[in-house]
Fold:
Amino acid sequence: MEPFLQISQGPDGPVLSTMEGRLLTFFLVFVRCIALITSAPILNSRSVDRLVKGGLALGISLIVEAALPAHQYNIVNYMSLILLVCGEMLIGFMMGFTAQILYQSVGLAGEVIGQQAGFAIATALDPATEQDSALMEQIMLMIATLIILVSNMHLAFLQILAETFRVVPPGSVVGLNGLGKAGETIAATLSGAGRIPGFYEFSVRLAAPTVIALIALNVADGIMAKTSPQVNIMVIGFALRLVFGLFVLIITMPTMCLLIHDYLDRYPDWARTVMSWLRA
Structure:
């Protein structure tokens, strides 16, 4: 009787049998899926149970592995296998990290608004990180989460994940020469490139209307303090900043939601650019 798993000797080293190659393909696909899920926004939240994350990665891996053609692997030693696994983790993490940069830019805008409006002292437990964070930051991230779910942007994560297996098949050697270019692309999401605003630029744009209105309010408070010294402007001004900040935020919220949608909708383009530099 022939053994269930066979390793034949090829010209470049040991070659796995078809069944064993399929198992290795499934494992590599699973590693890439779990790396993206644990780094992408919403999915990486600690409020999402680990069994749900593992089950989602397992289900996607079964579907993707069945659609992939058979592949022969030349395994020279354990180090070559470790490099294959690390390459899959790198691809998944870079795709998820690119989405995380765009997502956190909305939270940064909320933190800036909270600082100017006087909400800096108000903190709450963030269920995603299980740490205390600014209240306005959490509100903005919740709005971004709702926009992602309502507009089906969360499916873009799965779309990009499926495209990675076409551009960089499991077991392919990641193009190390392109890692620098991929890093430059991710850095461009921070600094901005061309007509696409970067991480900090977008956060400033999003918070600009509220911040400018609050600065004008502070100027008015200063004039009032000079013209009417008997008025306790410190007490009145603090309450005015809270109320006026919320009022401006409510007025500008529809426009902010459109800006957030348009900015997050650019994720597939950024991810494809990063993906193109990871080819072998």
User: Anything to note?
Assistant: Residues 148 and 204 are 21 Å apart (CA to CA). The radius of gyration is 25 Å. The chain has one domain: 7-276. Residues 1-15 have pLDDT under 50 and may be disordered.
